[in-house]
Amino acid sequence: MKRINYIVLIIGIASILLGFFLMSGEGTTEETYCPEIFSDIRIKVAPLVCLLGYLLCGMWIICSDFTASHS
Asked: Domain span at residue 31?
């Protein structure tokens, strides 16, 4: 059971990093306007991927405490 918990933790951390990577990119300055800052990936998909990662990490904390107290 411990191994599954760590796999969930690694997937959660990877999801958070992927979400932040999807949010990153070129910005807009006063001289140039980049419409990519309002793309669906940056506004909708990336925050959901980060949220999924945070939920998985929270699940890991809860499950690791539950398995530790019951073994």
From this structure: 2-69
